[in-house]
Amino acid sequence: MEIKDIFLKLTEVDAPFGYEEPMMRHMLSELTPLCDEVHLTPRGNVVGVQRGTDESAPTVAIEAHMDQVGFVVANIDERGFIRFRKVGGALERTLMGQHVRARTEKGPVKGVVGLKPGHITTPEEARTVPPLMSMYIDVGARSAEEVRGMGIDVGTPMVWAAPPVELANGLIASPGVDDKAGLASVIAVAKLLKDVEIPATVYYLAAVEEEGGLRGALSILYDLDVDMAVAIDTTSAGYQPEVNMRDLYYEVGKGPAIHYGEQGRGRVSVVHHHRVRGWLKATADAEGIPYQENFQFGGTDAGAMAKTRAGIPTATIALPRRYSHSPVEAFYISDLEDLVKVLVAAIKGLEPGFDLSRA
User: Fold this and answer.
1) 228-270, pLDDT tens digit by residue?
2) Among 293, 291, 295, 298, which residue's Cα sits nearest to residue 337?
3) Count of structural domains within the chain
4) What pLDDT does 356 receive?
5) What is the pTM of this model?
6) Is residue 128 over pLDDT 90?
7) What is the rounded distance in angstroms from the CA atom of residue 300 to the CA atom of residue 261?
8) Mean pLDDT of 174-195
9) Which residue, 43, 177, 203, 282, shows the most beta carbons closer than 10 Å to its own?
């Protein structure tokens, strides 16, 4: 199965922050036939293990997060209109007029984010984004009782309902690319290494609750025999009309990003482990795989995993994508394919004696 097919299958699984159970089940089903052992942690993280041939070789984890930005029902008024809150950092200006989908025990329920009729919208209102507290979702119900009869109540999770679309030159736009692209990579690497004898033991990890503070990754390595780890995530790309490349350096279509570390506005906050990062970079160079390198804008699970126990040597490899935290996050499938190639070749090359010392 091509990685595009793996990714598209993942887009059918709704897993907003804090409500990742369907993705837990999906990842368990995907990894079970590929790994020697698979389990679910009490926190909800999924762990799969492929045993290597040499116990003296370093053990490595590759990790992606299961949650996507989404929404949760906060209130239902007597007419059946739904007030909601964000889970994760969806951009408010992307919400008006969008299709959404509620995940209920009775099945999915479609809705739309309503907006004031254009004919009575003032020029000033037309130029502004209303606050989230004033937005609402219409599922076609005529009362609160009817909404609840559909299986929707306070606490019901919702996601964007936009389907993935393939644009020219292999550009794919979809909700939840962050981080279903990473999960697709985890599955693809496990598939490609399943029947390959390699020295290193590989841990395939899927973490919960990244979008609300890297919470799943804080504990995911705690009781695992892991020497080093790589977080697979997405990263914001520039080179679009309203983005200055001095602010966002990565571009879609030029290969995966191997980050030096992470930054906020004007300040570097994380520098990744040089040995792990250098291992990824040296592999890409040796294999002739295109890649980009700079600092990630924002955080990834690598920052949390590096704080586990005495500190696990950790780095990040990421998929550049446009339009972050929107229903049309866009990436080139070739970049995702190259990301997987880097990881597969790097893991195959892990031998006993690999030096993780920073000194």
Assistant:
1) 999 999 999 988 888 877 778 899 999 999 999 988 777 888 8
2) 291
3) 2
4) 93
5) 0.94
6) no
7) 10
8) 97
9) 177
CA dihedral 242, 248, 249, 252 (to 10 degrees): -70
Residues 114 and 205 in one domain: no
Q: Collapse the DSSP code of 194 into the 3-class scheme (helix H, G, I; strand E, B; otherwise coil) and give the result.
A: coil
At 221, is the secondary structure helix, strand, or coil? coil
261 with 338, same domain: the answer is: yes
**Domain residues for 110?**
71-160
Tens digits of residue pLDDT in 315-351: 999 999 999 999 999 999 999 999 999 999 999 999 9
What are the backbone angles phi and psi of residue 139, rounded to the nearest 5°?
-105, 10
**pLDDT greater than 80 at residue 143:** yes
Angle at CA of residue 293, ends 290 and 298, nearest 5°: 130
Min mean pLDDT across 14-28, 112-126, 127-141, 274-288 is at: 112-126
Query: Which residue type, as a one-letter code, is found at position 266?
Result: G
Q: Can you read off the two tokens belonging to residue 78? A: 């007597």
Domain boundary among 111, 127, 160: 160
- Residue 262 located in a structural domain: yes
How far is the C-alpha of 199 from the C-alpha of 51, rounded, in Å?
A: 9
Per DSSP, what are the bridge partners of residue 206? 46, 64
Say if CB 160 and CB 15 are below 8 A apart.
no
Say if residue 75 is in the same domain as residue 211. no
Q: For helices 274-287 and 333-348, give the axis angle rounded to 10 degrees.
A: 110
- Pairing type for strands 329-332 and 257-258 reads unpaired
Q: What is the CA radius of gyration of the chain?
A: 21
Give just the sign of the alpha carbon dihedral 178, 180, 181, 185. Answer: positive
At residue 359 the predicted structure's pLDDT band, cuts being 50, 70 and 90, is confident
For the cut 80, the answer to whether the pLDDT of residue 167 exceeds it is yes
210, 337: one domain: yes
Do the Cβ atoms of 15 and 23 come closer than 8 Å?
Answer: yes
Rounded to 5 degrees, φ, ψ at 279 are -60, -45
Cβ neighbours of 322 (radius 10 Å): 23
Helix axis angle for 177-193 and 21-31, nearest 10°, is 20
Residues 314 and 226 in one domain: yes
